[in-house]
Write a structure and sequence with these properties.
Elements lengths: L2 H24 L6 H8 L10 H34 L2
Helix pairs in contact: 1-3
Length: about 90
């Protein structure tokens, strides 16, 4: 496979890594732990999930799937390159 494929995957991996980190940090804490240390311990009186939280969950899963695909793609590319001896 050409080298531009690896560079594309690396750029996509960096973008998805930063995006995934931000999306995970946007999630509301479930009480206790490190989230309550920084002011996340204040819980709202609303029960259930809002539409925004559901969409945040969907975006997080989607970005995580793309991130995982980049990792697998880079691993396969590396295996092919090492196998051919180039």
């Amino acid at each position: 496979m050409p080298i531009w494929f690896a560079y594309t995957l690396i750029v996509l991996l960096v973008i998805t890594s930063v995006t995934l980190t931000m999306l995970i940090l946007l999630h509301r804490g479930k009480g206790g732990g490190m989230s309550s240390m920084f002011g996340g311990g204040v819980s709202s009186s609303l029960a259930g999930s809002s539409v925004a939280e559901k969409n945040l969950d969907r975006y997080t899963v989607l970005v995580a799937i793309v991130w995982f695909a980049c990792i697998i793609g880079l691993g396969l590319w590396l295996r092919l390159e090492v196998g051919t001896g180039v």
